[in-house]
Amino acid sequence: MSSAPVLPYPQAVAIQTLSAIAILISLPPLVLHWKNRNFPAASLICWFLVLDLFNITNAFIWPGDDIENWWDGEGLCDVEVKILTGAYAAIPGTLVCIFRNLAAVLDTRRATLVPTKRQRRQSHGIELMFCLGIPLITALLHMVYQGNRYFIFAISGCVTGLDESWVSLALGYIWPLVICLIGNYYCGLVLYRLHRYRSQFGDIIRSANSGLNKSRFLRLFSLSFVMMLALTPTQAFMVYRNISLNLPWHSYSWTYIHDYAWYEIVKVPTNGEVFFDRWIPVIAGFMSFIFFGCGKDALSMYRSILRFFGLDCCFRTPQSSSAGSFAQNTSRSSGSRVRLLFARNSKQNARGIANTSCRTDSSNGSYEDIEKGSPPSEPSKRPGRFSWPKSPFSWLRHPFSSSSHKGVPSAPRLAVPSNTVSTSAWAGSSQSRGSIDLNTSPTQKDFIRVKQVIRQESKVRV
Question: Is the pTM of this model over 0.85?
């Protein structure tokens, strides 16, 4: 007569359910980081996804303490213990790369407009080393100090075995803590530079050419900071715990470790308890969704998915004006950002530039100081025309619409007309009559030249 089936422990059901939810909600942040070519952040989420998958599998196979009917886990646990060993070093390694990249964004002494090919190769090499290379090495070195084949704990599943010698410390569980300390150094460097350049933080982010904006930078740093803050004491406790349990150490011997007893599989009941480190990937999945699954990029991705299935009819946001959409489109291009930035400061720059403007009349072609804003002697009146707004951003406050202005286009015309004066503005002295082309210093190589196009015709709406 077969024994009655053993019901799973409540923690087994809880960790299965929460791990499955963590996998689902971690997919949008993973897609966003991969789309933005943030390899360390994408690798961090991938490692947590693998650990969540292990939680679901192990709790399903070993949900209770019926060790007599347990499966030995041959094949599955052989692979799983190696991946777990690599994950212990990979997770802090990805955080090291994230903090290093954030610190490089705030490094004003080595800022470059476009990184060289050598710099890109070096950065990619460091990321591959910490995210994949070191975890692979630690997984292979586990064979050196692997005390037995593996352990099987109820709910937690496969657990690595360690030899009670100094080699386990030197090649095994000390390296995650060392990598965490490296990550703490870069984290402190980011905090120092954030405090030092707090007044120029927005300008530095915009000029770094890193694919990050201010919000994305702060969210990525906050997520990594919280993870590192929780991971460092956890790794320190695990090192202390392993040392205290393995003392006194015996001398290392390869033949002694890898004898016939090495193939032993130890099964351990837990009375429904789960190892605390099994909850780390679950919490990390929810944190990733909180920081990156509720932003504007994620919402637009959700909307595009619903639109693909034809389910976006209830989530359509009405467009307030065509000018708002124009501002959103122009903000995505660097040239439009430069024009908008110059337009905001055009009045202040015009006061500091003297004797460089000219005035023209539409009938006789005479010139006057048009940059100072002096009105023309005879304003030209043309049917179907409208007056330009006084403020560069007044079209944002008063959107162009058919109800307010007839015949007004949805976006300002950026093309240069035939009757215009074109000037290039920068800080310095004048170079020519029609334009000002100046540099900050003769040794500076990288600078931004802003070109302002001034329409010479004064349009007055009748």
Answer: no
